[in-house]
Amino acid sequence: MIDQILSYNKTFVAQKGYEKYITDKFPDKKLAVLSCMDTRLTELLPAALGLKNGDAKIIKNAGGLVISAFDSAMRSLIVAIYELGVQEIMVVAIRIVVLVI
Predict the structure, then answer these.
(1) Ramachandran angles phi, psi of 88, nearest 5°
(2) Can you list the domains of the chain with their CATH numbers?
(3) Would the N or C end of the chain have less CB density within 10 A of its end CB?
(4) Between vectors from CA 99 to CA 94 and to CA 101, what angle results, nearest 5°?
(5) Among the residues of the chain, which ranges form H helices?
(6) Distance CA 34, CA 77 (A)
(7) Which residues contact 79 (CB under 8 A, 6 or more apart)?
(8) Residues in Cβ contact with 55 at an 8 Å cutoff, skipping those fewer than 6 apart
């Protein structure tokens, strides 16, 4: 699998596929979004929020949680605010309900 990914990346770089994603480190909408790392949200979350590359800092972890004042999510949010100009924070949680019949 990794060989396939690296092969794709080599072609992507050679064809300059990255150029349409060029932006700087400062989020254009001054927004940070904390969300679950659920793979279903990889493309769905930005699309559902109308966000494009460069609009927001998207911080993902298991559950989209801030457990303590010193955990990695909080550190990321602090850097986003004090170093990257974020003025608003959204927390987007996903709830999964499994029914067993």
Answers:
(1) -135, 150
(2) 26-101 (3.40.1050.10)
(3) C
(4) 170
(5) 2-14, 41-49, 72-84
(6) 8
(7) none
(8) 27, 28, 29, 31, 46
The pLDDT score that the predictor gives to residue 93 is 82
Extract the residue ranges of the chain whose pLDDT is less than 70. 95-101
CB neighbourhood size of 59 (10 A): 22
* Average of per-residue pLDDT values in the chain: 93
Q: What is the pLDDT of residue 36?
A: 92
Q: Six-digit token pair at 78?
A: 């602090």
Q: Residue 99's pLDDT is what?
A: 61
Statement: the pTM of the whole predicted model exceeds 0.70: yes
